[in-house]
Specification:
The chain is mainly β. It is built from three helices and 35 strands. Helix content is 4%, strand content 41%. A hairpin with a 2-residue loop joins strand 30 and strand 31.
């Protein structure tokens, strides 16, 4: 359950959606052969090995960081298939700069970012900066680009000073093989600094940790990338580590950036006996700090949370069992990390209850309304938006810059779908007809089976061609994506 700042148990934006889906979705069927199209690598089409587990024997390692200097983050990303050491095994993976957990890109609002991107794979690829409000055209966040094998491309991004602080991520977005490449390991974090400005003085500069949730299936000596099935055994890692130790002092407050940067699966993250205090969702600071006992995190979603150390001892950070619907999958409980509370106690800081200012579109004039319907075929191998599969040559929806629109996203299937849109965030207005409190905008939200969500979004700053889709990448690759043209 989720408790709001006023002490009542209630729904909080997409957190409510996540919890509603976590209880009473019904019994799942078998995975029904729900496989992403085979196109990424030569991985054999056989069942993966059982998920790996391990005792906590090493401390959590935060990813290395590439940090902007004088308003510019400049780096090189080389994409290649390479053997990496993971969970005590040497496995072939799809890597950025030879790493399963690549560097975090860290910048400030108003910065520029330049990435020289070299593709050493045998398949085409590209790059998407997930959740970021930036141009979708040219050599910026343009997912219609294709970088062919052996080619190098220069990406250039100009971020606005109004870019919200929080956690984002980067990953490939080539249609039909996005799931394969992300599942193979191609995913890293982006952090936009600035959350400190909303913290009380005693919580500025506190220890922060990346909690990047990545999972992989193993076949022989390689991470499986072809014919991915969501219900198959998968090894869940934090920052590429299997059950690392996260150390905290009694009474200490830390900032954890929890991000599901995998291809398909859900997490229901909890640290029994400890409350997460949400300060940002999907890179957007909230207006009221939200205390929760667990968070359902679909692929692509991120939560920045404050965590306080309790009494000395150990506890497991876990993903609890999660059911995505009778046509979906049941995800078992698993240990993600071991939290070790030890050392000299520190005085526990008072946590904020109010946080950042947020936009509110409830009173804005609505320039247009759209209905977006998620459906799938009987055996769950083909997926549709408004009865159509994705075609990059077709414009499915149009909107006009500097207007607000209201969209109804309807799920006419028996499993959860995760709605995600590029370029502009949105405000969740209602879930199954029930109005939702606005704690801030987001870019990913779960749509319950046979249910609907109403959102409002304002098209700001950037015209161009962009996309909306289900962020379960198996579903996106199998057709559940549409093109949105934002006209000047």
């Amino acid at each position: 359950m989720i408790r709001n700042p006023f002490g009542r148990w209630t729904a909080v934006g997409s957190l409510l959606v996540a919890l509603a889906l976590a209880s009473g979705c019904g019994t799942t069927q078998a995975d029904r052969g729900r496989a992403a199209p085979s196109a990424a690598t030569s991985a054999p089409t056989v069942s993966p090995s059982p998920a790996l587990t391990a005792a906590a024997t090493e401390d959590l390692r935060d990813p290395a960081e590439v940090v902007s200097e004088d308003g510019l983050l400049k780096t090189r990303i080389v994409v290649e298939r390479k053997k990496v050491r993971l969970a005590g095994k040497d496995l072939w993976a799809l890597t950025y700069n030879g790493l399963y957990m690549p560097p975090t890109l860290r910048l400030k609002p108003g910065d520029r970012m330049e990435i020289t991107f070299e593709n050493k794979l045998d398949k085409f690829t590209n790059l998407h900066v997930h959740g970021m409000h930036v141009s979708p055209g040219g050599n910026s966040d343009n997912i219609f680009l294709s970088i062919d094998p052996g080619k190098t491309f220069d990406f250039k991004y100009q971020f606005l000073k109004s870019l919200e602080p929080g956690t984002y991520w980067y990953h490939p977005h080539p249609h039909t093989i996005s799931a394969a490449q992300v599942a193979g390991g191609m995913a890293g974090l982006i952090v936009v600094d600035g959350l400190d400005r909303y913290m009380p003085p005693q919580l500025r500069g506190i220890t922060e940790h990346a909690i990047a949730l990545k999972d992989f299936q193993i076949v022989g000596d390689q991470i499986k990338t072809a014919d991915l099935k969501m219900g198959a055994p998968t090894t869940r890692t934090v920052n590429g580590q299997l059950n690392p130790r996260i150390r905290i002092k009694p009474g200490e407050t830390q900032l954890w950036r929890i991000a599901n940067i995998g291809a398909n699966i859900f997490y229901k993250v909890a640290l029994p006996g400890t409350t997460f205090h949400v300060v940002a969702q999907d890179g957007y600071p909230v207006n009221k700090v939200i205390p929760v006992d667990s968070i359902v995190i679909p692929a692509g979603a991120r939560y920045d949370v404050l965590v306080q150390g309790g009494k000395a001892g150990t506890a497991e950070l876990i993903t609890q069992p999660y059911n995505s619907g009778k046509a979906g999958n049941q995800f078992p409980q698993a240990t993600l990390a071991t939290v070790v509370t030890e050392g000299d106690p520190v005085e526990q800081a008072a946590l904020p209850t109010t946080f950042a200012p947020v936009d509110d579109l409830a009173g804005e004039p609505v320039a247009g309304r759209k209905t977006i319907v998620f459906t799938e075929n009987a055996d769950g191998t083909l997926f549709y938006i408004n009865g159509k599969q994705f075609d990059h040559n077709r414009i499915d929806f149009r909107a006009k810059l500097n207007t607000v629109e209201e969209w109804t996203i309807r799920n006419d299937s028996d499993e959860v779908h995760s709605f995600h849109v590029h370029t502009n965030d949105f405000q969740v207005m209602s879930l199954n007809g029930k109005p939702q409190v606005n704690y801030g905008f987001q870019d990913t939200v779960d749509v319950p089976p046979r249910g609907n969500i109403v959102i409002r979004t304002r098209f700001l700053d950037f015209p161009g061609k962009t996309v909306l889709h289900c962020h379960i990448l198996n579903h996106e690759d199998a057709g559940m994506m549409a093109t949105l043209q934002i006209d000047p």
